[in-house]
Every structure is written in structure tokens, then in C-alpha cells.
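Exercise 7b. C-alpha cells:
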């Protein structure tokens, strides 16, 4: 027998279950109909005056306020001085790997508002020994020089409340004899999560030291991938490294990927930001053929360019002719169109107009056959590519050999992406405080070297066969600063579209001045149009080659300009009583 509670749950007491359900359905249906009729009637009765009985609209939200975000400190990490692959090697000093010492110097420059400190990359994350940099009274920039640093360095800049500062640093090592003979120099760079190193080799006689630096406070897991002339290399150990906070890890690429005549290395990091570079050195038997630092270039892109390729008129088949290195790292091959720009415009170079790209295969293209001069090179591909170039400079005969064998030095140049000016901003990214100029980068010149700028106006789009020459012009303002940070001269260089020029920064000084040029900055003056400023600094040191009439130093390296960090922005803020992440 059902209880009273059970009977009430099913309907009338004692009613059969089926009848109870039927009654419930009728009640529900009827109720729904009544609700619908009442609703329609209410709306009809209210009519136009019913709005007065409706709840008031919610009050408008508080207005949005733009709040400026205080910029975070900016880290710039510098490579360490050049080092032997095997520092424990000993033997006869006449044939030893290091018969003479290596002289190194580091220079940091900060122009604009903000404070800066420079610390050694000594394996500690805190860098307690960092030294605050002080600006000379009345100077336009802060300049600091460190002689013979024992390791890399970290430049920390805290921007001020006004304009974002211009930051640059560089390091160079000069060795005049032995396995490390050469000038190994580079601009210091910001750490990142992805870096492409285009250059180097692991064939017999070559060494490629990969240096990973973690300037942060958390460990970073780094994955290293290598491509060569046969495609992507299978690395022993999988290519994974753990780099602790404040630590530097050095590994020999030839140990994991030997016999790669042409090398491209990709470094990706998780858990923290890292800096990476290659120290590449080459020997032909006992004859040194140069040492340099391979620094990160652009991420894979379809339009790339680089400046500072110099030629002394080498033939196409000369092994010391300039070389362009290309890699399409994706799964699809394509074609790259290569254009070389000189003082008078594009220079025709047979065999390089269209370069076939096999996916995953590193390709070297000879730039031999160019007249003597300095050039910029543009690459326009139908698939994303990475690119770099190498330049060899002839030196003295090796004094330790009976027959004359010439020594050489080699410089590697990384490519950067070419892009039109941002939409709505025909001048490019404007320099704060200067509406008529857009910053195009800065370089701290390596102490103890001579310097030459190569400036180019590279078209952002490829010119079709038979098409008109690129039009327009680019005006670049170049400023020079001395070792005290004072501006000592400036000039404006006008470049026709598709041309390149060289400039000795020492000519910017007042006549009779003996001031040492420590840094240069480059700004775009006026509209860019469809042209992109591409430039670099060629640093030279050491004795000349000994050839009649040749007074050019025989050691060479190319420094890339350092561009500004992203400017501090603003975020939209609105007050609300809502908690959580709901609408």
C-alpha cells in the first residue's frame, strides 16, 4: 500500500499511476497556455505606456581609461671573447694553436633617458658585481669600455619616463697569429625563444662552437636543430640542453653533426629566454683561414636583405669569393631571386638571379664576379627562407711555411627581414621626440678597430624581369659619438632606390679633431615609401696583406645594427564590480 506521501507525489490519493500522469500532463499544458495568454494580454494592455513599468536600463559602464605600462628593464647579452676549441692543447709554440695572445674589448652605449648597468656573465643569475654606468657631464650618451673581458657580459637598461633609450653594445677579439687568427666581433643582442644562426661549417679543419647563454632567473630547456648540405642532420643526444639561470653552455657542433660543409643552426628555448651564437674557425692544414662569430638573423621570411658584402673582384670559381647561404627550412621547395645592389644600382650577376631551393638543404651561392666595392644583397623567395653571407679578406703569407700560403680572415653577415613601412605610418616607426625621423638602429664600434658603414636603400618588392628600375630615394641621417658620449658630427646620406654607399664615420668629426668615434646611429629622414634602410658596419684590424699598394687591415668582421626594443605601450582599463573572468 502506498503511503500518503507517495500518493501525493503521484496525484490524487488512490488514483492509478497512469491516470495520475494524464492529470499532470493536462495541468501542465493548461498552465502553459494560461501563461502565454496572460503574457500577450499584458503586452497589449501596456501598449506605448507600458515602458514606464519596465525596469530601468542599467547604468552605463565606467569610461575606459588608457594607462601607460611602465616598460620593463631591457637585457642585452654580449658574447664572450674568442676561445680555442681545446684550450688544453700544448706543443711547440712555433706551431702551437696560440703562439700569440688574444686582445678583446667590449663597448656599451646608451643614448637617451634611463639608467644602465654592466655585469659579467660569470655563471651567476644575480650578477651582484654589475657596475652602474655613469654619463659624463654634458654628454649626449653613456659610453662604457671594458678591456680584455674574461667572459660575456649583460647590459641591463631601465628606461626612464620619457623617450625609450637607444641601446647598443659590441665585443671584438683580435688575434694576429695561430689557429684563432682573425677578428671575431659582433653586436650584442637581446635573448629570445627562437634564433637562427646561418653560417659556419663542421667539415675537417673547421670548428663551430655553439654558445648558449641564459641571462634569466629560471632554467631554460634548449632544443638545437642543424641543417647541412644533405638536409636536416640527426644529432647525437637529440640536441637538447638544459641551461641554468645565469649559466653559459658551450658545445661543439662537429661532435653532434660532423662533416657539414654548410651549416644552419636553429635554437629554440622554453622556460626562459636565451642568447645563442656560433664561434666558427677554419684551418687549411696549418694555415688559418679566419675566425668569426655567427649571430642570429631573421626568422624564416620571403623577403630578406643584408649589407656589407665586399668584393675585390674575385672570380666566380674563387673559393674566397663572397658567398650567399640560403635554407628553406619548411617541407616545400621553391625559388629565390637574388639581387645585388651597388653604388650605381643593381649589378647583374649571372647564375644567381633565380636560385632553386630544395626543402631542408643548405645552399651556397657564389657572388664572385662582382667589381671591387661594397654591396647589399636582397633575397625574394616564394617560400620562407633564412639567409646569411660570408666575406673573406686576404692576409699575409704564413711565416711558418716554406712555400707561400696566404692566410685569410672570414666575416659572417646575418640577414634581416625586409618589410614596407607600417600601414598608416609612411615614415616607419617614428623616433620618439623627433617627428621627422625614424630610428634605423645603432652600433657601438669595437675599440681598436677601424670602421666603415655600408648603407643601402633596398626595395621592399622584387622588380620583375624587364620592369622599370625602382623609384624614389631614401635619406639617412648618420650621427657619430665619441668615447665620452658627446655627439661629434652628423651627416645626411641620400640614396637612390636600389643603391648602396659606404661612409667612414671618422669623416663626421670636425676638421682637425682627434676624437675617437665610439658609436653611430642611423635615422630615416622623411618618407620611406617602398624602400627599406639596410646597413652594417665593417670593422677592420691587424696588419695589411703585404701586397703592393694595399694598406687595408687584413682582419675583418661585420657588425649588425641594434634596433630599438618595442616602445612602452598603454592598456585599456575599466573599473568594474564584477569579480572573476565572466562577461
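Sequence design result:
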Amino acid at each position: 500500500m502506498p503511503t500518503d506521501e507517495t500518493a501525493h507525489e503521484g496525484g490524487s490519493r488512490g488514483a492509478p499511476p497512469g491516470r495520475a500522469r494524464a492529470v499532470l500532463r493536462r495541468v501542465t499544458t493548461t498552465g502553459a497556455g494560461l501563461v502565454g495568454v496572460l503574457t500577450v494580454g499584458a503586452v497589449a494592455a501596456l501598449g506605448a505606456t507600458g515602458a514606464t513599468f519596465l525596469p530601468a536600463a542599467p547604468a552605463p559602464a565606467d569610461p575606459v581609461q588608457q594607462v601607460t605600462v611602465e616598460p620593463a628593464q631591457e637585457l642585452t647579452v654580449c658574447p664572450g671573447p674568442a676561445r680555442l676549441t681545446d684550450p688544453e692543447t700544448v706543443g711547440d709554440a712555433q706551431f702551437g694553436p696560440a703562439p700569440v695572445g688574444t686582445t678583446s674589448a667590449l663597448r656599451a652605449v646608451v643614448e637617451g633617458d634611463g639608467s644602465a648597468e654592466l655585469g659579467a656573465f660569470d655563471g651567476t643569475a644575480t650578477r651582484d658585481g654589475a657596475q652602474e654606468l655613469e654619463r659624463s657631464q654634458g654628454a649626449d650618451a653613456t659610453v662604457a669600455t671594458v678591456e680584455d673581458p674574461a667572459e660575456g657580459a649583460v647590459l641591463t637598461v631601465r628606461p626612464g619616463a620619457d623617450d625609450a633609450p637607444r641601446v647598443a653594445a659590441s665585443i671584438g677579439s683580435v688575434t694576429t697569429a695561430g689557429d684563432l687568427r682573425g677578428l671575431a666581433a659582433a653586436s650584442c643582442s637581446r635573448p629570445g625563444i627562437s634564433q637562427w644562426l646561418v653560417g659556419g661549417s663542421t667539415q675537417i679543419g673547421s670548428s663551430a662552437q655553439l654558445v648558449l647563454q641564459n641571462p634569466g632567473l629560471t632554467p631554460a630547456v634548449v632544443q638545437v636543430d642543424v641543417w647541412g648540405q644533405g638536409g636536416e642532420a640527426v644529432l647525437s643526444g637529440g640536441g637538447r640542453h638544459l641551461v641554468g639561470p645565469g649559466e653559459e653552455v658551450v658545445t661543439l657542433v662537429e661532435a653532434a653533426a660532423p662533416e657539414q660543409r654548410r651549416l644552419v643552426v636553429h635554437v629554440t628555448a622554453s622556460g626562459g629566454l636565451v642568447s645563442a651564437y656560433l664561434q666558427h674557425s677554419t684551418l687549411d692544414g696549418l694555415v688559418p683561414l679566419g675566425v668569426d662569430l655567427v649571430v642570429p638573423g631573421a626568422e624564416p621570411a620571403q623577403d630578406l636583405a643584408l649589407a656589407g658584402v665586399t668584393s675585390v673582384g674575385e672570380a666566380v670559381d674563387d673559393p674566397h669569393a663572397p658567398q650567399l647561404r640560403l635554407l628553406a627550412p619548411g617541407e616545400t621547395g621553391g625559388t629565390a631571386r637574388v639581387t645585388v645592389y651597388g653604388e650605381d644600382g643593381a649589378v647583374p650577376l649571372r647564375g644567381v638571379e633565380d636560385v632553386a631551393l630544395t626543402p631542408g638543404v643548405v645552399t651556397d651561392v657564389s657572388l664572385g664576379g662582382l667589381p671591387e666595392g661594397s654591396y647589399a644583397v636582397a633575397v625574394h623567395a616564394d617560400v620562407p627562407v633564412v639567409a646569411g653571407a660570408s666575406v673573406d679578406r686576404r692576409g699575409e703569407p704564413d711565416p711558418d711555411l716554406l712555400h707561400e700560403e696566404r692566410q685569410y680572415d672570414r666575416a659572417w653577415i646575418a640577414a634581416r627581414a625586409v618589410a614596407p613601412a607600417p600601414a598608416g605610418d609612411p615614415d616607419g616607426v617614428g623616433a620618439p621626440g623627433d617627428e621627422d625621423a625614424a630610428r634605423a638602429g645603432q652600433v657601438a664600434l669595437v675599440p681598436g678597430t677601424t670602421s666603415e658603414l655600408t648603407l643601402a636603400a633596398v626595395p621592399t618588392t622584387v622588380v620583375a624581369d624587364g620592369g622599370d628600375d625602382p623609384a624614389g630615394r631614401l635619406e639617412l641621417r648618420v650621427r657619430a659619438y665619441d668615447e665620452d658620449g658627446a655627439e661629434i658630427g652628423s651627416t645626411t646620406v641620400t640614396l637612390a632606390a636600389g643603391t648602396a654607399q659606404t661612409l667612414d664615420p671618422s669623416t663626421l668629426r670636425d676638421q682637425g679633431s682627434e676624437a675617437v668615434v665610439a658609436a653611430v646611429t642611423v635615422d630615416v629622414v622623411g618618407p620611406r615609401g617602398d624602400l627599406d634602410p639596410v646597413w652594417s658596419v665593417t670593422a677592420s684590424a691587424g696588419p695589411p696583406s703585404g701586397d703592393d699598394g694595399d694598406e687595408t687591415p687584413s682582419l675583418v668582421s661585420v657588425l649588425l645594427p641594434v634596433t630599438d626594443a618595442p616602445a612602452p605601450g598603454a592598456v585599456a582599463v575599466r573599473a568594474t564590480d564584477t569579480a572573476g573572468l565572466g562577461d
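Instructor comment: The first strand starts at residue 65 and ends at 68. The first helix runs from residue 4 to 10.
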